Amino acid sequence: MGRGKIEIKRIENANNRHVTYSKRRNGIIKKANEISVLCDAKVSLVIFGNTGKMHQFCSPSTSVPAILDLYQKHAGKRLWDAKHENLSNEIERITKENDDMQIELRHLKGEEITSLPIPDLLRLENALENGLDSIRQRKTRMLEEENSQLTYMLNKVEMMDGDLRDQMEQQGGGMCDNNPPDRDYNYQIPFGFRVQPMQPNLQDRM
User: Fold this and answer.
1) Is residue 192 part of a domain?
2) What is the CATH number of the domain that holds 40?
3) Residue 88 falls within a domain, yes or no?
4) Is the dihedral of CA 130, 135, 138, 144 positive or negative?
5) Residue 196 in domain
6) Which of 123, 201, 92, 129 is nearest to 113 (CA)?
7) What is the secondary structure of 1-27 as a DSSP string?
8) Could you tell me the sign of the dihedral formed by the alpha carbons of 180, 182, 185, 186, in that order?
9) Residue 35 and residue 41 in contact, taking contact as beta carbons nearer than 8 Å
10) C-alpha span between 168 and 178 (Å, rounded)
11) pTM for this one?
């Protein structure tokens, strides 16, 4: 008994719809891979689910941009306008410049220089010497700035110390002026420490 014919319409149940999407997506990707291998065909497949997640397949012998270029050529339709073409050229230019800079950095670090001719080696040597001069100049400026800051802080601390000493001297002088000039010394000495005569009174012996 064969399977009944399935009516092609939107599946209302979200869980059933998700399960069906996963099964059929995997099935169509499998079929695309099979026709690519069995028939040596160039296949590119892109699927977007209702959640926006993308799944894709492309034959190992080609790429998605190459497939799109073939489509433009054979269908006579332009998928990219002049703005996108200029942007693509700019990306290629920046990519090449970045690759050249990476090679230059490796050369400056002494890597991959065995095959360089003498003019290139001399150019690298001059670049390194100029870089060292710039580093030394920058270091000198930083040391001078740091020394200036330390000198400023030292002068500021010395000024604060001098002001503090002046205030202490002024306060000390005022305290000395407030002391009474004539004061009974015996009044300041406790009773137990007052001086007593060493010899008894001679009149008491007589």
Assistant:
1) no
2) 3.40.1810.10
3) yes
4) negative
5) no
6) 123
7) -PPPPPP-S---SHHHHHHHHHHHHHH
8) negative
9) yes
10) 16
11) 0.39
